[in-house]
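DM from R.C. (forwarded with permission)

"hey, sorry to bug you on a friday — could you get me a structure for this? deadline for the figure draft is monday and I only need the backbone to look sensible"
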Amino acid sequence: MKKILYSVFAFAIAAFTLTSCEDVPAPYDTPTGDGGGTELPEGVYIDQSFTSSMGDFTSVSESGSLEWYNDFSSIMVTGYQDFNGDGVKENQAGVTWLVSPEIDLTEAQKAYVSVNMAMRYERGDINENNSILISKDYTGNVSTATWHQLTYNTDDLNGTAFTFVDKNINIPADYLGGKVVIALRHTCDESFSSTWEVKSLSILEGEAEENPDTPDEPEVPADGTYIDETFSKDFGVFTVETIKGNPWIIDYSTAKATGYDNASKTTTPSASYIVSSPIDLSASKGATISFQYILRYVTNYGEPIEGINNKVLVTNNYTGDPSTTTWTDITGTLTEGRDWETWENYSAAIPTELIGKSNVVIALYYSCETSSGTWEVKNLTVKEGNGESGGDQPGGGEISGNSITVDVSTLGLEDGVALETVTLADGTTLTFDGGGNQNTPKYYNNGTNIRMYPKNSITVSSSQTIVGIEFTCTETEEGIYNASGDITTTSGAVSINGTLLTVSGASANEITLTDVSSTKGLPSQFRFTNMVIYYAE
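My reply, with the result:
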């Protein structure tokens, strides 16, 4: 009898349980911020927070082995990581998707995607490499689905800090009235990668104000600092791009470049860059790059060693490949050291033609062939302002109105070393060439002047139109070093009045003056201590 009663009770409980389950809604069919379990409010089609998990989203690697993962209370992806655990970050290529569960927009009249995200280090097209897409035929294979890109406003992204902003994108009408899938697609290559962080993604009923054509007024960073890297532990916002041989490395809390191996006493022919992430100088009135450095073994008895290069470069058209990018050389003259304790100070103005641009990239470049120098760099900054000139710092000259006055003794030029390119405070460059003469243009402390010989030339290049140049020539008891007036110019005309050699009537962004004297000695030389460059109003 007891067995019969127990059976009746068990049957009743089972029936009650089944009936109860039939009346409970299925929250697991509705994706939410917790990956299911809470019914969404009306007008909210998905509301996913990534602060602690990926929820109902899935990371898919279309190519490469990168994945989306949770970190810093968000979900993120990057191709720039320390993949092998050696303490040095490197780039890996990949196309990596974050795919949503199926979202039912059957009842939606209008809807938009809202994504809270931050981004840095993107050097290409933000929307192309960090894409938000929608599909209505996704069945589990990202490669075979038809995707429509939802282009978003990129304002306030890709700056000098990870600042989270909300991006709202309206969903096209063709994707309403049915079920869809939303995906985030990250694309990078072996040259560079952005870091993309996302805190939340929602789809809401209604129409969003996207405002793609009315970006906020650009602003200079509050502290005026665009880049501040010590290189004490890593390259920070810089990426190593090696063409051949030995790369830049972090060594003794500095960024170090050399092709020489002290253990084997051998030199590896090398060429390598460290390239910054883009800097937004849209609101800048002038900016300066500065760093400390030690540079050794680049000359032999005062003469530059062939094949050794150490350059500071800048561009606003970085291609992703430094070897194919057109760079502006703002190196000026670097001072060769005699020990490993004395740090030189470098400072140069960002050229004026790049001020106001939103994608300025800076690079340090070294190369060597049979012999190599060693270049150590630390405490690199890019800050608002033109900085100070003088001493051993490039970027000299005093700007006044539509002219710049240059005392060559303040340019930090090394005594008796062949001149190449000197960048002035306003971004104008002076480029020197020997023209085949074994005596090339040089600066000498004795006389504090730049000396040029027959066939030597100086090219003055500026983003502004140059209308005149005035040189103050050196005068000694023997006479005036003005090449006897045998100076040609590519624009305007040359005249002499005492110690003044003047180019007037010019109108060009680049002017080359050449010493064409056919005599020898003092009458053939052009030496100057000062110059004034005049620009068009």
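R.C.: lifesaver. The CA atoms of residues 68 and 77 lie 5 Å apart.
me: no worries. Residues 1-36, 212-216, 388-394 have pLDDT under 50 and may be disordered.
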